[in-house]
Amino acid sequence: MRFVLEILLNAGVLLGIAYLWPKVHVKSYVFAIVVALILGILNATIGFLIRVPLNFITLGMLTFIIRMLVTAFLLKVIDSFTDDLTIDGYLPAVVIAVAMAAASSIL
Predict the structure, then answer these.
(1) What total of structural domains would you count in the chain?
(2) CA–CA dist 95, 51 (Å, integer)
(3) Would you say 15 and 35 are in contact if contact means Cβ atoms under 8 Å apart?
(4) What pLDDT is stored for residue 46 in this prediction?
(5) Which residues contact 101 (CB under 8 A, 6 or more apart)?
(6) Which residues pair with 12 in a beta bridge?
């Protein structure tokens, strides 16, 4: 149940930032849910494989920053594979990742 709530919350954050920031475009709310689902799956698999060595190198002291950067990277990967999501630059992807993390921690 928590995974479903997190997916819906991440989709809402993505839509909210797309509404407020002209550098982020999402075609529809359904696609925002699809992007949040893909991001959750990628974060659980590929993101984990990227984060583990980086956390080992930094001795776990930069875990939050590494998680945000990996999530932003995965958002840009999703952006490159789809036409319905457009993120112009890496900074908006980082802002989306930070907003998603803040919303998840509040949840």
Answers:
(1) 1
(2) 19
(3) no
(4) 92
(5) 64, 67, 68, 71
(6) none
